[in-house]
Amino acid sequence: MICLGIESTAHTIGVGIVSKKNVLVNLREAYTTESGGIIPMDAANHHKDVKDDLIKRAIEEFEKLGKGKIDLVSYSRGPGIGPCLQVGKNTAAELAKSLDVPFIGINHCVSHLSVGSLVTPVKDPVMLYASGANTQVIAYEGGKYRVFGETLDQGIGNFLDSFARHVGLGFPGGPKIEKLAKDYTGDYIELPYSVKGMDISLSGLLTNLKNKHDSEKFTLEGLSYSLQETAFAMLIEVAERAMAHCDKNELLLGGGVACNARLQEMAGKMCKERGAKCFVPQKSLLIDNGAMIAYQGILEYESGTREKKVDIRPYERTDDVLVNWKN
Ligand code: AMP
Ligand code: MG
């Protein structure tokens, strides 16, 4: 079976085409701003503007491979920004009609997890899902993907982007902070560390960082370095505790922030100390992408899921998803 998946939960519209074994095509276009965050209608209009060309290019690339025909279309139904999700759903509906194939809606967070098993040997991991809006530690237990820990206020990526915006770096801020941190050779600057049970909180840390920056007593490099050391240690701590609690010996990274080399290094170290394995898919599958939506489409369709009510679910949680594709 071959599926074309459409991702449009936030800033990225992605079109991916996959088989059960391989990613065949994975294209994306991202909405960016010079300053400020995502304006929902602007992002949705961006997606509307580029969608036709993106699908055309994806199908052309796919046809060149000579791998047969597309059997299914999937789209991310949530969680995400309503107007952006609507573009994805409408595009999927139109495309499915024109190709005369079925289409189904997919939970974005769960597909980040599933795609790990398409491209790495991971079997039963705890996933640290560190993206813009979402920050969760997820594992499969008792027939469901359960959230063992999460942010109590904002996603790690949004936190990085907010600090970046405050100090005059554009969006997305994560890669810029990573670069500044890398060049720093000074001491760690003390920052508040906030792990509450299995959850983390980032807003106090953000305020503290903004105040420190505004006091002009610290360099941006020093703050960026110390920010990463603090916030990432919080993520790794809850991920490690979830691994211990669930007795799992694999960690899978997902989400745009997982592109960060320092976070990957910390995750690898923690796993090594526990005798566990750390899996990191390639960057094009860590960030929001259509290929993971397509792969999840195949898993669910082959397990019998059929779209009864075509809709978007902007607030759908990972643990709301009925899992029928695992045995
Ligand atoms: P996603 O929502 O999964 O597409 O991820 C987007 C988020 O990832 C944005 O908040 C970016 O700032 C962040 N991001 C992307 N690359 C990096 C990086 N190298 N280090 C830290 N954050 C990153
Ligand atoms: Mg995501």
Radius of gyration, rounded? 20 Å
Low-confidence parts: none
Order of helices and strands: EEEHEHEHEEEHHEEHHEHEHH
Kindly report the average pLDDT value: 95
Gross morphology is globular
What percent of residues are in strands? Answer: 15-25%
**Ligand catalogue:** adenosine monophosphate, magnesium ion
- Order of strands, main sheet, comes to 3-2-1-4-5
Q: Given this structure, which CATH class of the largest domain is correct?
A: Alpha Beta
Helix fraction by DSSP (H/I, runs of at least 4): 40-55%
Number of helices: 10
Q: First CA to last CA: what distance?
A: 19 Å
Q: Total domains, how many?
A: 2
By CATH, the superfamily of the largest domain comes out as: ATPase, nucleotide binding domain
Characterize the largest beta sheet: strand count, sense, and whether it forms a barrel: 5 strands, mixed
Which structural class do the helices and strands define?
A: alpha/beta
The name of the CATH topology of the largest domain is Nucleotidyltransferase, domain 5
What is the number of E strands? 12
